[in-house]
Amino acid sequence: MIRKWLAVALFTCSFQALALQDTPELEASSSHYIKDDLFIFMHTGPGRNYRILGSIEAGTPITVVSTDSDAEFTQITDDDGREGWVESKFVSNTMSRAEKLPIISEQLTENQAELQASQSDNARLRQQLNDARQQISQLSTENEAQASEIVSLADKVESANKDELVMWFTRGGFVAGGGILLGVLLTYFPKRKRRSSEWM
């Protein structure tokens, strides 16, 4: 039953767990474990002919006490404090899936929370970016309107200057023409004769 549960849970979390590239190393609770996907019997001595003390499940953390001369059996103490002998080929120094699963699940939950926080921050930053773009667009429109108004005012000033210059030229022309006309008219007035001196 435990093996089926572990298999289903590991299959469900396998893809997400593989995606955790920045996951720190898992801290093992022991240096040795019973290999996964099996259960074995624990004997009172280094051989199968010794009395069976009971079974020990896959993934159980153990403490290695010693090994026999042929290294076929290893004396261990399990997590319940029982001491006995198991076949050495079933002892592993790799952390069991049963111990990895809750740690990976916790890390997965933390990473999902961080992902949600990042997504929230990204949404807020996107909103700020959109607001900034709208402000820039509004300022650009106002800038274009002001530039157009400046051009219009400059045209008005230039037109006023031209009108004033024409007016002064016109006035000057009238004054010059009047002077010439007056000079011509003066030539047609009769000259006043001088009175001759009586004692000459």
UniProtKB/TrEMBL annotation:
Residues of the signal peptide: 1-19
Cell location: Membrane
Keywords linked to the UniProt accession: Coiled coil, Membrane, Signal, Transmembrane, Transmembrane helix
Domain SH3b: 29-95
A Pfam short name: SH3_3
Membrane topology: Single-pass membrane protein
Segments crossing the lipid bilayer: 165-189
Coiled coil: 108-149
Gene3D superfamilies: SH3 Domains
GO cellular component: membrane
InterPro entries, alphabetized: SH3-like_bac-type, SH3_dom_pro
Alphabetized NCBIfam families for the sequence: SH3_and_anchor
Protein name: TIGR04211 family SH3 domain-containing protein
